[in-house]
Structures are given as C-alpha cells and as structure tokens.
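Predict the 3D structure for this chain.
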Amino acid sequence: MNAPDKSLRTYKSLEKLRVVAETSTENDHKVHFLAPPPLTRQAEGETGHFRTYQPRPFTPEERADTTILFGGLHWRAERLIVATMENLGYKGQALPVATREDLKTGREVADIGQCCPTSFTTGALTNFLRREKERLGAEEASRSYVYLTAGSCGACRFGQYHHSYELALRNIGMDSLRMFMLDQEKFDQGPTHGGGLDLNIPFTLGVFWGLILSDLVMDMEYQIRPYEVNEGETDRVCREAMEYLYEAFKNRPTDRSKWGMLAWHVFSDYYVDAMREVYRRFSTIEVDRLRVKPMVKITGEFYLQTVEGDPNYNIHRWLETEGAEVYPASISIWIDYLWRLT
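Done. Predicted structure below.
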C-alpha cells in the first residue's frame, strides 16, 4: 500500500468516530455530537507542487510612502545603510535589536527546529510588524513596509531564512507584506518585482563601503573605551562620528553612470577624507594606556558574534565590565568569506 492510500484509509476509519462534547448544568446534561472535518484533497493523497515565495510588486510610485525594513547587523552598519538608502531616494529603517521576547516569538511563529539566529531575527521582524498591525491595521501596515534581507545558498541555514520569515508572516496575518532578497554574490542585481527597489551598483557599493567603514569605527571604539579616562566619552564620540559618516553617505554624489559610480568608489578620496575626520575625533579622547587588560577575541556563529544585545547576552559590554579589552568580530569577514568562494 502506498503512502497516500494508507493516509486515506486512516482518515476513513476516523469517520466512524463520534467526538462527544458534554455540557452540564445543575439540573440536566446535554451531549452534542460533532462531525469530523470534511475530507480534504491532501487527505485524498492529492498534493500540489511547492511554489517559492513571490512578493507583490513594489513600484517606484510607492517609494515615498513605503519604508524598507532590514536588520540583524550592529547599529553602526545599520546607520550607514539607512544613509545609503536615503541617498538613493528610499526610506530605510533598521529593526530594533532582537530581545529574548523576540526569540520566544520566533520559536512560536516559525519552525521550532530552526537555528537560534533565525529565531531571533524572525521574532524581531514579527514583533515589530505586530505592533504596526495594531497601530495601522494589517492592510495599511503591509502597504507601508517592505522587508529586505540577504539571500544565499549558504552557509548553514542562511539560505532558508526567508522561508521562516514567510511562515511567520502567514501566521500573524501579514502574508501580503512584500519581502525582497539582496543576492550577496551580485553587485548589480537590478530592479526587484515592480521596479520600486533597484539593487544596482550605487546601492550595493554604498552598502559595501558602509559595512567596511562602520567596522573600522567599531574597532576604534573597542580599542579606546577600556582605557578612557572620562567614562562615557568614547560612546559619545562614536555616536557623533557615526552621524558625521551618516551625512557623508547620505550626500555622496550619484550623478554618474553605473561604471562611473564603480570607478568613483574605488579611486575617490571621499571616504578616506571622511575617515580622517573620524580618526581626528577619536584622537581627542583622553586615555590611560598604563592599565593592564587582557584582550578577548569574540568568534563563533556570524550573527551571534557580531550583534550587540540579548542574542549573545550582551557579551561585549560584560567582558569590558570584567576588565577586558574586547576584539569584536567584524561584518567584513563575511566579505572575505565570499571572496574566497570565487
């Protein structure tokens, strides 16, 4: 007997059962007989082909009223990605750093067997959209936002993240939200469905340089903060430096051809000059290098080693409070990984 015949026979045997629901009052008893659910096509052994997720169109006319959501990186990189989007005429917004509640939500609305980073990122997206759904309604929230995530065939389950997002959106009644994937192996991916989001060279190069420069700022921050004389000064300078870089990315020139933009990003001193100013600002922080501190390198799974917050128990700040100098993992190591694949 093949599998469909077996499942059909099992279902037919269940039709003979009567489910009894008993309700009682003080004087009488009432018994209701509930019929089994109707026979479905799947129970009859008929299954359809798997169909990959296809978002609704996102058109250029919708850009002004639609916010592009993304997340999962450290806040410095996310700030420069928002600047890149605004430079190209988009509205960008980074999702809040994932929390323990997001982890629980991710387990609830998606595959329980998924890896921890998927649960955190899925839960962060889900809880944000739940709040917006309550504020705006499901239809308006789905119209007001699109979600942009990276797509790949690896490593680990990274290539399957979008399926977890899709399942979560269905489970919260937001399956009409549009989700697009940025192919990490293509510099010029082209317009997404509808043409409202063009993942072209200016977009990709802006993100690329944003990741590299934000990692450099993070390195300076972690090398200086353990030795600062005035507590909190490094955090203040870091945020000021990131706002300076935000303005530099937001106002970068874009009036060039595709290959002209590529040449400008490679040969221009625009970002070099910006980083000189950032270095000058960090150089004003008073430090005491006579303090003896061990250096602790953070490594491991990509998301959990780079995020700063509940997903890794705030390990960066905890190590600093314990007297260590933290050597943080950079996002740029993923770029190095991709280069080694080619």
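The chain has two domains: 95-199, 203-341.
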